[in-house]
């Protein structure tokens, strides 16, 4: 007999609720749905938050199995947004009032006799008028609605293990085991810690009551590090008086120690600068309702594509699949209880404490989680409330520090770490504030947000704006890297997200991501990606070098983003200059963006016969014209020019002609810019920028083997308009048509437009094994077919 049965399939759903629907004899119509599910599908943008605010109902019939006799039948719902009333066979059993934590309901006593069909009904309230966090004021993200994470039944013996908490220190560990009953006389506990290849610790102990504490040293163990996040499995067996296994629980964990102090953050004694981003858990069309593999892919994107070592799950606990993948990949997670700026009345606060308790007890075995957020994001000081949230956090988990994200300086620090949203950078000033200007407190300090609304940037914005977006992120990262007393930062934010009417660009999107909603990278993503080697050899350049994209035809600054040691620039195959990583103006970053200060090199000498000395002077003037325009030169450059004209080094006409030839190239043959990224003396990547002649659609799919296990599986297809050299064509916004056949279907519309040259299509399995084909037709009528294999493993 299976001891866990996933309950994600075979649900009836009605987007409106009526008491009669709780009755199994109710004959009305329902939609057939699978979980994760959203109470409504929404368009990409331009819709109202009232769409998902409703009372709805989910119903599922299931048979009481003969084998369940004498067992405990426990229902767990991992995520129901936002208030869920559980009814079994018409009887109310429980209410849960947090859309972001799991809850378990004991169904045993209300089940019908073996062989009979039960009706499980979940009445769901997804209205934002609920008096629970995060509601009560405005919110800068959509809160959606739905049973959007897994639902399952656990079949247990009458005495079972309710919870295990494992705490580690170097190679030592302690566990707190909680049984559902104190009536376990004669029972015992057997524990093993398994590595991938051996057993590294064993414990045998009696059961004194419903709480059992165990401790041991494990040998040999490898610590959980960012580079090698080694995980162990703690197997705990509850043995009954007859010597049989009554219950068994596996907990995956890592050996690691964390510390914050006024000098920064330490993992296993090693100082680490946290470089991260904030993540919202929403997706186009389905809001929160995405299954396991898509959740995991977000962690993959953060670590393997963006190279970050830290994520803040703003502003609520997120899918355990996402967190598990962070454990596996070595990403540190700062998770916080739900809330946004507003603190409600006593009932609201009591619910917040409950949410906090659930968050900590549900996530505390994850090695990736390094701190609890126990303040409502950006709320005012409320000492009484926050003393309570801190007390609760330390009581429930003595191993992790608390933080509390605020936007106010010198607020009362009741947490261990001062976590501050530093939006001080406005493009021209320093990237971040000195800690002393924010708090006089001792102890750790972390910048939990920056950028975001200070510079919303769409993937279809001008090149200049996209460049500034990237450079602002680099400026903050560089500044934080230069402050030893700042543990790091998480930028706002990883992905664009749908939001309420009070926020965003008027279309219900906050374009604050370094990636768009489909997880396509904007230029700012290149700043993050270039900081690490493990993201693969990488080079990106901000500009297509098209004068028409700039006011007065004055090309903006040219920046290189790379993790290489140096980059050689060639214009029309003529070598111009080699730029070293150390030339970057961002001195605190190992791989700060490099400003290309010369695109002429020796060409004036070689091609125009100008002397070396004069070439430098003329180049300086040409670059000044490029930057300011010939009519807006400063007095300094005007004087320089006048001198050269007077000394007959060059005439005004010739200077303008050289500018035309070597920079603006107006009406001339288009130039080609080649960038060779060099690592350890070898060219590892080449990037060519020249005028696009015939853009085409490129597709990239996250996975083509889709597996239904707990529920349906989803893969993402990324769409990108590229020129002949593989460069993104940001201003192609054409339509792309998608058609699914066989064992897959499309989530959302069948026609999508490219936005900033990019878009995405999600395909979903349908419950049948076999082949599925996605046919994509681009704006030129060209077809691409992607084949998927769907396997069912249940
Ligand atoms: C912060 C807030 C975030 C987001 C961000 C936009 O104040 O905590 O949720 O709204 O601003 O920059």
Automatic annotation (TrEMBL):
Name all Glycosyl hydrolases family 2 sugar binding domain ranges. 45-153
Asked whether the UniProt record includes Hydrolase among its keywords, one would answer: yes
Q: Which UniProt keywords apply?
A: Glycosidase, Hydrolase
Assigned EC number: 3.2.1.23
Pfam family of the protein (one): Glyco_hydro_2_N
Renumbered to this chain, the signal peptide range is none
Q: Which Gene3D superfamilies match?
A: Galactose-binding domain-like, Glycosidases, Immunoglobulins
User: InterPro entries per the record?
Assistant: Beta-gal/glucu_dom_sf (IPR036156), Galactose-bd-like_sf (IPR008979), GH (IPR017853), GH2_Domain-Containing (IPR051913), Glyco_hydro_2 (IPR006101), Glyco_hydro_2_cat (IPR006103), Glyco_hydro_2_CS (IPR023230), Glyco_hydro_2_N (IPR006104)
One GO-annotated biological process of the protein:
carbohydrate metabolic process
Highest taxon above the source species:
Bacteria
Q: Which ranges carry the Glycoside hydrolase family 2 immunoglobulin-like beta-sandwich domain?
A: 160-256
All copies of the Glycoside hydrolase family 2 catalytic domain together span 261-530
MF-aspect GO terms? beta-galactosidase activity
**Which family is this sequence assigned to?**
Belongs to the glycosyl hydrolase 2 family.
The protein's name is Beta-galactosidase
Q: What is the species listed in this Swiss-Prot or TrEMBL entry?
A: Treponema succinifaciens (strain ATCC 33096 / DSM 2489 / 6091)
């Amino acid at each position: 007999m299976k001891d866990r049965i996933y309950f994600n399939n075979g649900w009836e759903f009605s987007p409106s609720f009526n008491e009669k629907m709780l009755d199994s004899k109710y004959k009305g119509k329902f939609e057939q749905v699978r979980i994760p599910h959203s109470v409504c599908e929404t368009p990409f943008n331009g819709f109202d938050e009232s769409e998902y605010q409703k009372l709805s109902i989910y119903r599922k019939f299931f048979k009481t199995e003969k084998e369940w006799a004498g067992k405990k039948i426990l229902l767990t719902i991992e995520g129901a947004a936002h208030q869920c009333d559980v009814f079994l066979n018409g009887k109310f059993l429980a209410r849960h009032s947090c859309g972001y934590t799991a809850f378990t309901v004991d169904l045993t006593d209300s089940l019908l006799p073996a062989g009979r069909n039960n009706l499980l009904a979940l009445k769901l309230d997804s209205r934002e008028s609920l008096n629970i966090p995060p509601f009560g004021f405005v919110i800068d993200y959509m809160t959606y609605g739905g049973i959007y994470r897994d639902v399952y039944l656990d079949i247990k013996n009458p005495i079972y293990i309710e919870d295990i908490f494992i705490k580690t220190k170097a190679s030592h560990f302690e566990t707190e085991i909680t049984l559902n009953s104190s009536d376990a006389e004669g029972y015992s506990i057997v524990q093993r810690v398994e590595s991938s290849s051996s057993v590294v610790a064993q414990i045998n102990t009696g059961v004194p009551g419903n709480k059992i504490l165990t401790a041991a040293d494990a040998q040999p163990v490898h610590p959980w590090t960012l580079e090698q996040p080694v995980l162990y499995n703690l197997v705990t067996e509850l043995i009954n008086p007859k010597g049989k296994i009554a219950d068994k629980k596996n907990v995956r964990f890592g050996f690691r120690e964390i510390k914050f102090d006024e000098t920064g953050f330490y993992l296993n004694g090693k100082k680490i600068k946290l470089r991260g981003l904030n993540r919202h858990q929403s997706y186009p069309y389905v809001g929160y309702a995405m299954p396991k593999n898509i959740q995991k892919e977000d962690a993959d994107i953060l670590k393997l594509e963006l190279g970050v070592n830290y994520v803040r799950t703003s502003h609520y606990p997120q899918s355990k699949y996402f967190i598990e993948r962070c454990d596996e990949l070595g990403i540190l997670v700062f998770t916080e209880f739900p809330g946004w700026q507003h603190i409600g009345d006593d009932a609201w606060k009591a619910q917040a404490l409950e949410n906090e308790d659930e968050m900590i007890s549900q996530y505390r075995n994850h090695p990736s989680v390094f701190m609890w957020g126990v303040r409502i994001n950006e709320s005012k000081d409320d000492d009484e409330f926050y003393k309570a949230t801190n007390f609760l956090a330390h009581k429930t988990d003595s191993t992790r520090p608390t933080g509390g994200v605020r936007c106010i300086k010198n607020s009362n620090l009741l947490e261990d770490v001062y976590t501050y949203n530093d939006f001080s950078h406005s493009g021209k000033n320093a990237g971040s504030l000195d800690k002393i200007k924010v708090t006089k407190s001792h102890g750790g300090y972390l910048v939990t947000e920056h950028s975001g609304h200070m510079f919303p940037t769409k993937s279809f914005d001008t090149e200049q704006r996209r460049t500034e977006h990237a450079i602002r992120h680099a400026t903050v990262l560089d500044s934080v890297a230069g402050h030893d007393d700042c543990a790091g930062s998480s930028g706002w934010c990883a992905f664009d997200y749908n939001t309420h009417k009070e926020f965003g660009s008027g279309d219900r999107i906050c374009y604050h991501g370094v990636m768009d909603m489909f997880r396509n990278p904007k230029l700012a993503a290149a700043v993050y990606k270039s900081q690490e080697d493990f993201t693969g050899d990488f080079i990106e350049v901000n500009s297509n070098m098209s004068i028409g994209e700039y006011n007065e035809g004055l090309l903006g600054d040219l920046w290189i983003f790379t993790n290489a040691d140096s980059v050689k620039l060639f214009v029309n195959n003529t070598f111009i200059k080699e730029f070293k990583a150390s030339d970057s103006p961002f001195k605190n970053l190992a791989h700060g963006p490099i400003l290309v200060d010369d695109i002429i090199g020796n060409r004036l000498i070689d091609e125009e016969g100008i002397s070396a000395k004069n070439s430098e002077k003329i180049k300086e003037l040409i670059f000044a014209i490029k930057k300011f325009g010939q009519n807006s030169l400063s007095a300094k450059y005007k004087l320089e020019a006048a001198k050269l004209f007077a000394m007959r080094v060059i005439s005004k006409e010739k200077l303008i002609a050289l500018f035309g030839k070597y920079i603006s190239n107006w009406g001339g043959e288009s130039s080609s810019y080649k960038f060779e990224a060099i690592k350890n003396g070898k060219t590892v990547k080449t990037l060519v920028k020249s005028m696009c002649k015939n853009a085409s659609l490129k597709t990239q799919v996250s996975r083509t083997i889709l597996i239904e296990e707990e529920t349906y599986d989803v893969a993402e297809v990324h769409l990108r308009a590229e020129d002949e050299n593989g460069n993104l064509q940001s201003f192609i916004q054409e339509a792309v048509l998608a058609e699914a056949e066989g064992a897959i279907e499309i989530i959302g519309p069948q026609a999508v437009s490219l936005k900033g040259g990019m878009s995405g299509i999600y395909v979903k399995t349908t419950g049948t094994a076999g082949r599925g084909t996605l046919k994509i037709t681009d704006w030129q009528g060209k077809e691409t077919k992607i084949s998927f294999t769907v396997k069912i493993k249940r």
